[in-house]
Input
Amino acid sequence: APHHGRDRDYCDEFVKVVETNKYGRSGDTVTLKITKYPVPTAVISGSDTLFDGNTGTKKINVNLTGTSPWDIVYSDGVSNIDIKGIDKSPFTIETRSLSNPPEIHKFTLVSIKNVSGCTGNVSGVAEITVSPPIKTSKIFHN
Output
């Protein structure tokens, strides 16, 4: 019978195994606990406006469900970044300094895994707008 633990994120189940030899003699019952974890999910969101070459942003959030710790991979539009062992949700991504072009940097999730290695569903997008530098032309006077 299923046993519901204090943490409602998962439900434990037990399998009982009894070895019997060819003479019908049974050994001791061995109980194996099976922990079922829910499929993890991750949703990325957030927006910010930065000046070109400015420091990065901390306004990108990833909301995670399921059982921690989680491993995620996200894309900053150029490369994939791997973050392991996230233990709290929401998780804040700190970006590197961003430049223009492009004007809009899109951050998306590539994958999520839970503590048991199950992969889950990812969605959402965070958009960071980067203002280009202003190039002041020379000022002449007569």
